[in-house]
Specification:
This protein has 70 residues and is mostly helical. It has one domain. Helix content is 50%, strand content 0%. The chain is built from 2 helices and no strands. Keywords: Membrane, Transmembrane, Transmembrane helix.
Length: 70
Amino acid sequence: MDTRDSKTPEEELQHLKEVSQPEDYDQPEPDVEQPEAKSPPGRLPRVLPIVIVVLGLAAAAMLLLSGNGP
């Protein structure tokens, strides 16, 4: 991703041409410039809530079992 603030006149013209073109809904394939759009999301979004619940239960069990001690 280009994060520069200023663009050359050629870059600005190219940007205006790209923005003025309507989106192509007939071909929903991701752009070549967006390889991240092609890959499916990993398993992390499904596993993360389970990990959080297990860690929460483990922390609660440790607190309950620790008590005041002898």
